[in-house]
Amino acid sequence: MAIEVLLVDDHEVVRRGLRDLLGDEPDITVVAEAGSADEALAVALHVEPDVAVVDMRLGGSESDGVELCRNLRALASPPQCLVLTAFEHEEAMVAAIRAGASGYLLKQVRGQDVVHAVREVGAGRSLLDPVTTARLLDTMRGDNTAEDDRFAALSERERSVLELIGQGLSNREIAQQLFLAEKTVKNYVTSLLGKLGMQRRTQAAAWVARHTPE
Q: What CA–CA distance (Å, rounded) separates 81 from 103?
């Protein structure tokens, strides 16, 4: 049976290109398209695709693509999610994986790489962009003992914020979860990064991923 695919991208020209690319494959069928997260969720409930190819930055916000993956994976008949993004940074990859994405590719890849990725995630396997994966692993390497000592210096609230960073939540989403002002969350993020000796949220998210039991 053909792999049924839902295309989610807020740019029509991108969706059209993906439809033409995947439509040439005898074992892949594009069953629907959506230009927003809300539309995609409604469409997925109706057509129940096998794979959702999701743009990471729907409406200009990475949190929209991440949240869509999380919502799609929570459906009664959840599709596998393949995330496409034009941006190379590890935080986005961590967020996508934690939201349930099975694949993560940069839009700069060749067309056949996308076709291969759809087949892989459609078969229940995982596929991640090798360049971004390598950078993520480099970020996660380090002195475990020193990291654990720094973690012990965090306050209880900072640890809560760190955990939610690891789940791929934005400052706004963390504020909603913890019933705090977004500016307060930003201050907590700055503080915990300083205590952990990190410069970016990416590093904090990678630390959480590494220290979370499977």
A: 7
Candidates 114, 45, 109; CA nearest to 77 is: 45
Question: What is the C-alpha separation between 90 and 201, in angstroms, rounded?
Answer: 9
How does pLDDT run across 17-42, given as a tens digit for each residue?
999 999 989 999 999 999 999 999 99
CA distances in angstroms from 167 to 43, 116, 172, 202, listed in the order given = 26, 28, 13, 12
> Whose CA is closest to 173, among 163, 182, 160?
182
pTM of the model: 0.62
For 138-150, what is each residue's pLDDT tens digit?
A: 554 444 545 566 7
- Determine the Cα–Cα distance for residues 166 and 66; give it in Å rounded to an integer: 13
User: Is 54 buried (19+), middle (13-18) or exposed (0-12) by CB count in 10 A?
Assistant: buried
Question: What per-residue string of b and e applies to 3-35 under the rule 16 or more CB within 10 Å gives b?
Answer: bbbbbbbbeeebbeebeebbeebeebebbbbbb
Collapsing DSSP to helix, strand or coil, 28 comes out as: strand
Ramachandran angles phi, psi of 4, nearest 5°: -90, 130
